[in-house]
Specification:
Elements lengths: L3 H11 L4 E14 L2 E7 L14 E6 L11 E2 L5 E2 L8 E6 L2 E3 L4 E7 L5 H8 L5 E8 L9 E6 L4 H10 L6 E7 L14 E7 L9 H7 L8 E8 H13 L8 E7 L5 H17 L7 H9 L1
């Protein structure tokens, strides 16, 4: 595989693991001061055949934080729709932390935001409660490169962990991980060739953050670099430009994702994204191309 761009485009065009199903809540436990770990299961997850690092899905949760949900149908444009008079659930995105194919079980981590929808749902959920799941979005592939660069804030920590776990022996990588406390430094494997720098700070937003400063202070690794960046939108925009302009990372070797946007709710961000993608489809753009998607997101 030549580049992460080629790999992700091929996966998107294959329509691998396109799932829309009901899942049952199994349980939740504390993981660290700012994360809990939850599990869900459902027969519809049998379609999840190719598990890759940083795989993402969306749970469709009741808007009130408890109760049942109605699954949508997909229109010709690929977007979900609900019958008239049915209140749509609210979608929240998560990373597959573990997957047990035999049990059709997904384990995922949830950042603790006490008044957030996901935590409200988890406080009320009991084993057997049913919600919807839509996915799976593949967000990482390995290109033919000499060095990997992984940059993630706390919101992307679960995804970064799965990427680091996937690196084989002999992989050279530089990793920057932002967390809010030393106690959140859990579940990240270490091995020879992988340099991890932890940035302990409040959530990073926009320009000039501790996460950005840590990256800028690091000498450029030698050779061809693949960069994977996931954090707040303003942080990602700045670091995306930096690694392209100063480290010479080719756009085919760069995958950047905004996991959240300062000043916007996740629901507002999803509405904005749906509007952009609908217009992009009308314009005939190739939304299987991750570079096209990034240009839409960070234009």
């Amino acid at each position: 595989m030549g580049s992460i761009r080629e790999g992700l485009r091929a996966l998107a065009r294959s329509a691998d693991a396109q799932i829309l199903c009901e899942v049952e809540f199994e349980g939740v436990r504390e993981r660290s001061p700012h994360f809990v770990r939850a599990s869900i299961r459902g027969a519809g997850l049998a379609g999840y055949r190719t598990r890759l690092p940083a795989d993402a899905f969306k749970l469709m949760l009741p808007a009130a934080g408890s109760g049942s949900v109605t699954l949508p149908t997909r229109g010709a444009d690929g977007l979900p729709s609900w019958p008239d008079g049915v209140e749509p659930p609210v979608a929240r995105a998560f990373t597959v932390r573990e997957y047990d194919a035999d049990a059709s079980r997904i384990v995922f981590d949830v950042a603790i935001h006490p008044n957030g929808l996901a935590m409200t749902w988890l406080r009320h959920a009991v084993p057997g409660d049913v919600v919807g799941l839509a996915g799976i979005r593949h967000d990482f592939a390995v290109g033919d490169v000499d060095h990997h660069l992984v940059i993630a804030d706390a919101s992307a920590l679960p995804a970064a962990a799965t990427i680091i776990e996937s690196f084989g022996k002999g992989t050279d990588a530089t990793v920057f991980l932002q967390v809010e406390s030393e106690a959140d430094r859990v579940d990240i494997p270490t091995q020879e060739g992988i340099q991890i720098e932890w940035v302990v700070s409040p959530p990073c937003r926009g320009d000039g953050t501790p996460l950005e400063r840590a990256v800028r202070a690091t000498p450029r690794p030698e050779g061809r670099i693949q960069a994977w960046i996931a954090a707040e939108a303003g942080v990602v925009r700045t670091l995306r430009s930096f690694v392209r302009d100063h480290w010479g990372v080719h756009r085919d070797d760069l995958h950047a994702v905004a996991y959240w946007k300062s000043g916007r709710t996740n629901t507002e961000t999803d509405v904005d994204a749906a509007r952009r993608y609908t217009q992009a489809m009308a314009d005939g753009l190739d939304l299987s191309d991750p570079v096209v998607v990034q240009e839409l997101e960070f234009a």
